[in-house]
Amino acid sequence: MYDVIIRDGTIVRSTGRLVADIAIEDGKIAYVGGNPGGPAKEEISAIGRFVMPGVIDTHVHFRDPGHPAKESWATGSREALRGGTTTVLDMPNTTPGTLDEETVRDKLDRAAAHSVVNFGVWVGASAESIPKISALWDAGLVCGTKVFMGDSTGAFGVTPEVLEAVFTQTKGLIGVHAEDQEVLDAARAQWQGTAKPVHNDVRPPAASIKAVETLIALVQRTGRAIHICHLSTAGELALLDPLRGDLPITCEVAPHHLFLSTDNAGHLGNLVKVNPPIRPEIDRRAMMAALKRGRLDTFGSDHAPHTLEEKQADYWSAPSGLPGVGTMFPLILGALKNGRIGLELMVAMCAENPARIFNLEGKGVIAEGADADMVLFREAHTGKLTTEMVQCHCGWSPFVGREVGLGPDFVLVNGVIAARDGVIMDDAPMGRSVTYGGR
Predict the structure, then answer these.
(1) For 174-205, what is each residue's pLDDT tens digit?
(2) Alpha-helical runs (H) found in 97-146
(3) What global pTM score does this model have?
């Protein structure tokens, strides 16, 4: 007997659509096709619904245990699940270079005890961590190495020497926060005496553009694969677009760089203070155009929640970072309804591409033998995000008033119905640590 059968779902892949039944057994997809020819403990009618692999958010900052008032694996993972995300990859933040094997295993143990979605972790780059990175990669404990080229919310940018060492002395995928420290220092000195500067001026586009120039040169010289996080400017796109497919560079976009700009959200002040900053409208439109043309690879929420009290401090004291793990997929569904992204491309960026880039075994595909992580949703089921709908732990969202999907109808994690209509089931299972192929 199967555990679950999903009947008559329209399965969406980057290559097209297929109406079929899906049978699940022991957390895996056991059958995809016509009638599976056997009973199930539970059946779901998917008539009128799309079925896609669970969303993979490769860029979250779950702050447990340092800042439990802001976030924890328990609260962050529940918010992810409500929004259709079934796997998260957690990044180091305020102390990026302190992760060794003991702290990595401790973080994985905490996630296993509290997370209702599947999970993996990054290791942070620093002079101290470089000798440990290859062993962590070989042991399958981390999904990649996160490099801060410029300082960000307490994380100090690496020196050029450390950046060079990451490329020449470590193994595995390199994820990069691309802002050049010299440009940041010069801009900060220029605006230091201003009480309420524009964040985009303090951390100007030139910092990101120069950092991407440096990265391109390093990749050309070393052949290392990199994943550029939260791309935000037309200038970065202009540098990368001609090289797409020729160099092992993939790119992530965050919802706040697709939907917010200094022109449409500048009135929110410190609430939209984030690194890299939200940019002028011309950059936002360039990012949206690149999205529509398939020139970006993955979405990442860059979920980094802070309390309203912290955000309401003066500009120079207020921290950078936005909540977003629960609103990422709903915002994308809003863009889908309005023709800003196609259904097949959405599935590629939400699930297939991150599974491929990070070599996540069993993820990102609806096929026999794959993990049964799935989202069932209706394409036009959208509305305006209201304050009452915001359930993230920090209690606010910069996306209130935006058109969003009104929550997936069903979210399955490891073959179990974990959420329905945005409500987490009482018997939702704990998530599992992801495994990586090819190591």
Answers:
(1) 999 999 999 999 999 999 999 999 999 999 99
(2) 101-114, 130-138
(3) 0.96
Contact 105, 404 (CB under 8 A): no
How many Å apart are CA 410 and CA 397, to the nearest integer? 23
Closest CA relative to residue 233, chosen from 152, 298, 290: 290
- The pLDDT score that the predictor gives to residue 439 is 75
Cα 350 from Cα 11, distance rounded (Å):
14
The parts of the chain modelled with pLDDT lower than 70 are 63-69, 93-99, 152-156
**Which domain CATH number covers 149?**
3.20.20.140
Alpha carbon of 133 to those of 393, 414, 439: distances in Å?
A: 32, 29, 14
For the chain, the domain total comes to 1
- Name the H helices within 223-327: 234-240, 255-259, 262-265, 281-292, 308-311
**Which residue of the set 64, 302, 373, 409 is catalytic?**
302
Q: Which residues span the domain enclosing 246?
A: 54-357
Find where tokens 């990069």 sit: 176
Does residue 253 fall inside a structural domain?
Answer: yes
Structure-block tokens of residue 118: 């599947």
302 is a catalytic site residue: yes
* 416 falls within a domain: no
pLDDT at 392 (0 to 100): 81
Cβ-contact 222, 252 below 8 angstroms: no
Cβ distance 122 to 94 under 8 Å?
A: no
Q: How far, in whole angstroms, is CA 267 from its chain's centroid?
A: 26
Is 45 among the domain residues? no
Instruction: Give dist(CA 143, CA 239) in Å, integer.
Output: 26
Which residues, other chains included, contact 119 with Cβ-Cβ below 8 Å and sequence gap of 6+?
A: 73, 77, 87, 88, 89, 90, 108, 111, 112, 431, 432, 433, 434
